[in-house]
Amino acid sequence: EIVLTQSPATLSLSPGERATLSCRASQSVSTYLAWYQQKPGQAPRLLIYDASNRATGIPARFSGSASGTDFTLTISSLEPEDFAVYYCQQRSNWITFGQGTRLEIK
Amino acid sequence: QVQLVESGGGVVQPGRSLRLSCAASGFTFNTYAVHWVRQAPGKGLEWVALISYDGSNTYYADSVRGRFTISRDNSKNTLYLQMNSLRVEDTAIYYCARGLGGTYWYFDVWGRGTLVTVSS
């Protein structure tokens, strides 16, 4: 099983700041990685797929990148509605998710 | 609008069975693969099962293989999950999710979920 490790567990930032969330795979997943946002009481929402492709309707402030087994989700300038939990997911070998990063208001 | 609505959750004793349903609307259901994904209370996400657009192929997580069965009725635009031999650790919100077109191992549309509680 491919294990995805997300860091940090919690990230405290202010609106307007830049957020950088990380996801490391235990083995190569090529670029077969997605990012989701989940707010309390809601279902997850697809943000990024295949490491760097924004899903339909996702604002340009969200971007994804990859370097080997390390993946990054960047939010260029935080809006109040961006504070949520973020999960990465790989599809290279079945499907697994990371444990999540909570992005909270500082 | 594109929508998935789950139903059928509830409280069930260990060892018993439950069937979940997911009604799809707003898109051509029979052209998309669909999944079940679950989330234990306060925990992360776990993929459960996938069924191809025509029902000819199914895939399961190791944790549910042999106990759960995913199926679909394209004439009713409905997805199902038959859960047998339920365990306490199956307690979770169960989401149905549409596979992203062309790369169906990602999830681009989600329902709001239905809560399954397995407890004696």
Largest interface: A-B, 22 and 18 residues
**Outline of chain B, from the CA principal axes?**
globular
First-to-last CA distance of chain B = 39 Å
Q: Strand content of the residues of chain A, in percent?
A: over 45%
The H/E string of chain A reads EEEEEEEEEEE
Percentage of residues assigned to helices of chain B: under 10%
Low-confidence stretches of chain A: none
Radius of gyration of chain B: 13 Å
Low-confidence parts of chain B: none
Name the structural class of chain A. mainly beta
Supply the number of helical segments of chain B: 0
Residue-averaged pLDDT of chain A, rounded?
97
How many distinct helices of chain A? 0
The description of the largest β-sheet of chain A is: 7 strands, mixed
* Separation of the first and last Cα atoms of chain A: 35 Å
Q: What is the tally of beta strands of chain B? A: 11
Helix/strand order of chain B, N-terminal first: EEEEEEEEEEE
Shape of chain A: globular
Helix/sheet category of chain B:
mainly beta
Determine the fraction of residues in helical runs of chain A and give it as a percent range.
under 10%
Strand-residue proportion of chain B: over 45%
